[in-house]
Amino acid sequence: MTTMTTTRNRRPWTVGRVFFWLTLVVLTLIFVAPLLWMLATSFKTNNDATALPLSWLPNPFSSTAYDTVLTTNSATPVLRWFVNSLIAATANAVLIVAVDAMAAYALARLRFRGRKVVFATVVGTLFVPPFLFLIPNFLIVSKLGWLDSLWALIVPSAGGAFGVFFLRQFFSALPVELEEAALIEGANQWQIFTRIVLPLARPALATLTVLSFLTNWNDFLWPLYVLFSADHLTLPAGLGNLQNAATTNYPIAMAGAVVASVPVLILFIAAQRHVIQSVTHSGLKG
C-alpha cells in the first residue's frame, strides 16, 4: 500500500521538468565554478597557478599561500584585518537594524505631520549615487575625530535609506489588528513595537542584517579614505596591500579571498531560512 501511494505521488518526468532541472544544474555550476576555482588556486604554487594549460587540481598541493596570509607581521597583519572587518561589519549591521527598524516603524504606523514627505525624502536618497556622499561623510568623520578608527566604518551608514524603506514596507504589510488588540490590553507603543512587531518581522530583520553585514564586509573604497594605519585596515582594503606586496601572487590573492568568504558563508547558512521567508512572504497569511 505504501509503495502504491509513493508511486502515485511521484511526478512524471516530462520534457519541461527535465529542462527545468537541467537549467538549475547549469546555473549552479556557473555560480559554484568560480568559488571552486578560487579554492583550488589557493592551494597551488604561483608557477602552477600561471602554467598553461590551466588545471583545476593543484599540482603539487601546497599550503604556502595560507602560511603567507595567516602569518602576522607589521606590514600585512591579515588576522588583524580580519578581526577589524568582523567588528566593523557586525557592529554596523546591528546599528543599522536598530536605527532603521525604529525609523521604519514610525513611518509605517505613527501618524504625524510631514510623514509622507519624510518617507519620500528617504526613498529619494536611494537614487543618489553613493560616491557623492564620500566627501560630506569624510568631513563629518574628520570633525568627529574618527579618522583612522573603526568608528568611521560603523556609524556613518547607520541610517541607511534602503533599510528604512525595506522594513517600512514589511511593517506596513503586518496586520494592524494585532497592534490594536495589544493597545486595548494596555500595552504602550514601545511594548507593541518590541514584543509584537519585531518578533513578527524576524525574517525581514535577518535579511537586513545579512545585507548590511555583506555591504560593510565587502566595502573597499570607504576604508581606503578613512583608514591609514596598517593595523586599522579592514580585510578588503588590506588584501589590496597584500597583493601589491606579493607582486600578483595568485595563490595568495585566492587564499585571502577564501579567508574573507568564510564569515559570509557562515552568516548566510545561519540566516538562510529567515532570508527565504522574507523573500517569499510579506507579512502574515490570514
What distinguishing features does this structure have?
disordered C terminus; single chain; 286 residues; mainly alpha; 0% strand
Which helices and strands appear, and what pairs or packs with what?
Elements: H1 2-9, H2 15-42, H3 46-50, H4 64-70, H5 78-109, H6 115-124, H7 134-144, H8 151-154, H9 161-173, H10 176-184, H11 189-200, H12 202-218, H13 221-226, H14 235-245, H15 250-280
Helix pairs in contact: 2-15, 4-15, 5-9, 5-12, 5-14, 10-11, 12-15, 14-15
Offer a quick outline of the entry.
The chain is mainly alpha-helical.
What does this structure look like?
The protein has 286 residues and is mainly alpha-helical. It has two domains: 65 residues, no CATH class; 209 residues, MetI-like fold (Orthogonal Bundle). Helix content is 71%, strand content 0%. The chain is built from 15 helices and no strands. The radius of gyration is 24 Å and the shape is globular. The C terminus is likely disordered.
